[in-house]
Amino acid sequence: MKVFCGRANPTTGSVEWLAEDENYDYHQEIARSCYADMLHDKDRNLKYYQGIRAAVSRVKERGEKAIVLDIGTGTGLLSMMAVTAGADFCYAIEVFTPMAIAAVKIVEKNGFSDKIKVINKHSTEVTVGPDGDMQCRANILITELFDTELIGEGALPSYEHAHKYLVQEGCEAVPHRARVYAQLVESKRMWSWNKLFPVHVQAEDVEKIIVFPSEIENCPGVPSVYDIQLNQVPRSDFTVLSDVMTMFSVDFSKQVNSSSTYYTAKLDPIKSGMAQVILSWWDVDMDPSGMIKCTMAPYWVQPTSNDVQWRDHWMQCVYFLPNEEPVLQGENVYLTAYRDEYSVWYKLQKARNEEDKKDAYVGSPLCSCQAHLLWNRPRFGELNDQNRTNQYIQALMTVLEKDSICLCISDGSLLPLLAQYLGAEQVFTVENSAVSHCLMEKIFKANHVGDKIKIIEKRPELLTASDLEDKKVSVLIGEPFFTTSLLPWHNLYFLYARTAVAAHLTNGVTVLPQSASLYMMVVEFKDLWRIRSPCGTCEGFDVHIMDDMIKNSLNFRESKEAEPHPLWEYPCKSLSDPQEVMTFDFRLTVPQQTLSTDGSVNLLRTGKSHGAVLWMEYHLTADISVSTGLVQISDEKGSCQWNPHCKQAVYFFSSALEPETLTDLPSAITLFLKTVLIFLNLNETFRKIWL
Fold first, then answer.
1. What is d(CA 675, CA 683) in angstroms, rounded to the nearest whole number?
2. Which burial class, exposed, middle or buried, applies to 601 when counting CB atoms under 10 A from its CB (0-12, 13-18, 19+)?
3. What share of the chain is helix, strand, coil (3-state, %, to 5)?
4. In angstroms, rounded to a whole number, what is the distance separating the alpha carbons of residues 463 and 457?
5. CA–CA separation, 102 vs 196, rounded Å?
6. What digits encode the pLDDT tens for the residues 563-594?
7. What is the pLDDT of residue 635?
8. Where does the pLDDT of residue 691 fall: very low under 50, low under 70, confident under 90, or very high at 90 and above?
9. 564, 629 Cβ separation under 8 angstroms
10. Taking the model in full, what pTM does it have?
């Protein structure tokens, strides 16, 4: 059965109605899940197994039957561990129906059907009693309900309900407890992900500075945590201002209270600096003694770098303080962690007396300036990148004349300000949304050019001559950047917009960027490959059914598509040189004919060909280009440095090549790409990459 789904095409800007299989959403959910990543997390699996064995042993030593409740069972792995450890019976709860069906099959295949009952419900709907889902309350509670922030997947309300209705008082719990840690740091790089810095514009012999409204400077930002791979942030990018502090802990073996609350800890600055960012992570004790510990601590906290387990389902947290504040070494400072059922946020306070230390509960921060609603954290970093801005300044200086009439097509861009500062006669800018219109209007007014730059809140194809005051555009500019873009080529919407406004351009119009090239490179990932790799056997249990289920869903569509990843967080080495695949000329309108390319990629280094990385490079002028992908290959081993402000597209090969020596390498990977530019759905384009 097919159903019609409306889907926005970021590249064309249009809504397309597609006939999708009725199971499309469910396949997407499985394909994009973290199940494979979790099954490959050996540290997590081993620690859970050790904790479960210890919990079952403690119950048996009391002369009791071991009855297990496993909430969020997934594959049924933890329940099978419990039975193997000697549990008498397990109730395995899984709310996601396809996963529950798979768990039943996996449990059966491993021979545990007589001791594990899979219940396809949310744990809050499970009943206990002779006619209920569970015959009796459990005396061992096993869960894996955690995310990078610990509580973001609703762990606290699930535990609260389970202790009230599903488990015995004083039950054993695996994990037994969790602790949340915090460390205060100063970091210009991380702070640039949340606040806007002044932008310096060198125009001939005069320097002008773009400033931002005070409401942006004073805005606390958005409440959501920024979860990243902190292990990829070098120590040179931040200064530690405090020791690691335990902010709060949760004992999962006792009644849990999910109500909003806060925790305050005295912080002793070990160095003077600007308090800007809280770095946070958690660990769990799998047993009451704390001997079996699983930690998310970053590399500078762990005894040796070899102790750091790579995982993508649990990372580390970056929290931004509402405002930066100077702290002095040795002064009294208090850090407060606030939480509700699903999220955490922080506030720093300098206490002068006992009353000041008593801080009432403060609700989560809300963006009041609109900038944090329009731009995500990487976009803030991009706007704060002065080197990148200088490239646009240099390019604009080569194309602008005193009589230039400029039109900017990009979402929430500073290019109109740059063009005005650099001497354009008139600047128009198109903003697709009321939010971006309002925000850019505030920024223009703060720089006293509100009457010199005209904002047009329309889609490009709806522009009229009167919108442009009956003037012809001589310089069309764009970064390009559009908030709807997910994959690198989605910003080729600029080509469609350029075509839509063709009637409003002069015959000799200058377009910046003048063109864009799509590049690709074959790489070997250090760890990212794990999210798409089958597991087979996990801690001695056969999970091939799960592998097949994920593979089936990937083959439904996802395995034929590239997916976005910020590769600065995921180390890889190049196995080929970067290769230009296709170029798009923005000086021309969208061609009506099909563009296609085919060829081969020569492999230069030994390694496993996990996939191809694709990115765009924008040629602002003939000799100035901006890359959204590879910055450089930094050594002979092929280590890659990537643009930290953009996500690159990764196409995972279905099977990795495993050459042993350079001479044994296949000479090339055959490549076939085809783009139908009449419709230019580039998300469809890179489905056709075959070994």
1. 10
2. buried
3. 25, 30, 40
4. 9
5. 48
6. 999 999 999 999 999 999 999 999 999 988 87
7. 86
8. very low
9. no
10. 0.91
Q: Per residue in 245-258, pLDDT tens?
A: 999 999 999 999 99
The structure tokens 């709806």 sit at 462
Name the CA dihedral angle for 322, 328, 334, 338, rounded to a multiple of 10 degrees.
20
Contact of 686 with 564, CB cutoff 8 Å: no
Residue labelled with tokens 């069972």: 73
Give the C-alpha distances (Å, rounded to integers) separating 364 from 32, 51, 342: 29, 35, 11
Alpha helices in 485-629 (DSSP H): 493-500, 544-556
Helix (H, G, I), strand (E, B) or coil at 432: coil
Neighbours of 538 (CB within 10 A): 19
Q: The dihedral of CA 190, 193, 198, 201: what is its sign? A: positive
| Residue whose token pair is 């530019």 | 677
539 is catalytic: no
pLDDT over 70 at 689, yes or no: no
Mean pLDDT on 234-244? 97
Q: Is the pLDDT of residue 683 over 50?
A: no
**Nearest residue to 270 via CA among 184, 353, 352:** 184
Report the alpha-carbon distance of residue 489 to residue 617 in Å, rounded. Answer: 10
Token duo for residue 593? 């004919």
Measure the CA dihedral 219/224/230/232, to 10°. -80
**Pairing verdict, β 426-430 and 405-409:** parallel
Cα–Cα nearest to 560, from 412, 442, 437, 690: 690
Among residues 153, 441, 457, 539, the one annotated as catalytic is: 153
Q: Tell me: pLDDT of 86 over 50.
A: yes
- The mean pLDDT value for 8-20 works out to 55
Asked whether 33 and 49 are in contact (CB, 8 A), the reply is no
Average pLDDT for the chain: 89
658 has catalytic annotation? no
d(CA 144, CA 81): 14
**Per-residue tokens: 358:** 């008593």
Q: Which of 94, 144, 431, 569 is catalytic?
A: 144
Strand pairing report for 595-602 and 668-675: antiparallel
pLDDT at 12: 58
The interaxial angle of helices 544-556 and 24-31, nearest 10 deg, is 120
Task: Check: CB of residue 549 under 8 Å from CB of residue 30.
Answer: yes
| Dist. CA 124–CA 518, nearest whole Å | 49
